[in-house]
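Why does residue order matter? Because the sequence determines the fold. Keep that principle in mind as you read this record.
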Amino acid sequence: MAELVVEEVVVEDIATTMARYWWVFLLRGLLAIAFGVIAFTYPGITLRCW
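Structure:
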C-alpha cells in the first residue's frame, strides 16, 4: 500500500513541474517545427551534414 502512495506523489510532482514549465515544452515544439520547415525548405543544407 505504501508503494501506491509513493507513485501517486511522484506523478503529482511530475504533473506540477510540467504545469509550471509548460512554456519549455511549447518552445521545444516550436523549435522542432522550425527545424522541420528549414530542413524541408533547404534540403541541400540538411544533406550536406551527412
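Residues 22-41 form the longest helix (20 residues).
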